[in-house]
Design brief:
Layout lengths: L1 H11 L6 H14 L3 H14 L6 H14 L3 H14 L5 H13 L5
Helix pairs in contact: 1-2, 2-3, 2-4, 3-4, 4-5, 4-6, 5-6
């Protein structure tokens, strides 16, 4: 139901300021149902089409987690590394999340 609501919102309001959030939460709904490929597509869309949105750093982190879940470890590690470069002012909690996921994916620096 949530996915349908987010898709309807995106279709009805393609220029709304909440579009990046709706795309992120659509991705999150896919992720929670282990539909990692669809989740990755949505998180990628936020991080590329809406790179300045508040949810963009979160989307990039979730993109990495989704890629890791798909077995694409190298791409996941590259994505995690990109967060620090793209968002050097990210909150401490975000940086800790990146470090946690890098350990989980066994990324090397």
């Amino acid at each position: 139901q949530a996915e349908m609501g987010f898709r309807q919102f995106l279709q009805s309001h393609p220029r709304d300021r909440l579009v990046p959030d709706a795309i992120f939460w659509l991705g999150e709904s896919y992720f929670q149902r282990n539909r990692h490929r669809e989740a990755a597509e949505q998180f990628l869309k936020v991080s590329t089409d809406h790179a300045r949105a508040a949810k963009a750093p979160d989307a990039l982190l979730k993109l990495g987690v989704s890629l890791s879940a798909l077995g694409a470890r190298e791409q996941a590690c590259a994505t995690f590394a990109e967060i620090g470069r793209k968002y050097p002012q990210a909150a401490a909690g975000m940086r800790q999340g990146v470090e946690r996921e890098q350990r989980r994916a066994r990324c090397t620096s």
